[in-house]
Amino acid sequence: MRRLLIATTNPAKLAEYRILLRGFDLEPISLTEVGIHEAPEETGATFAENAMLKARFYFERAKIPVLADDGGLEVDALGGAPGIHSNRWLGPGRDNSDRALADEIIVRMQAVPPARRTARLRACIALVYEDRGEVRERIAEAAMEGVIAERAMAEIRPGFPYRAVLFLPERGRYVGELGEEEEARVSQRRTAVMMIAAELKQIAASV
Hints:
single chain, alpha/beta, Maf protein, 7-stranded mixed sheet, globular
């Protein structure tokens, strides 16, 4: 089975990709499994730029197919923030814990009426691999639409603060209330993975 490096240090995200990649005849492996402990500086101005930056960085070191992603929460009433700064939105020297990030969204949205609370979780996936001696790259981007709730969930799944504030009206639940399997079926990452399904199957079939 062909190995596919999942370029993330987030254990929850790695677990999600292992669910999403079922059926592709690929073995998702972690950075730790290939002995890589360094990380690139994310200097891109967009999710796509940061995702590809990471994919190229780890492909150069691992020399095996690499899937990397970048993403976060976009809140329309906040001008698209936190956006690409989702993981470090509150700035250096501040508490950027999951709880602090979720609570800050709620605080900033207190005076915003229901009709203007639209938001989305966006994910951009970058895939870098070698095909018959040529390095190929592919980008896919998707989003899960919802609204910012009036309060954050009491419990936050580690590594995913914004799933505790994004509510899905059509399901009547927070993203964070979805089980792992259900979320994997409807998430923005699943949509993006399906957009690169042909490339993933090509990797799996290559020797």
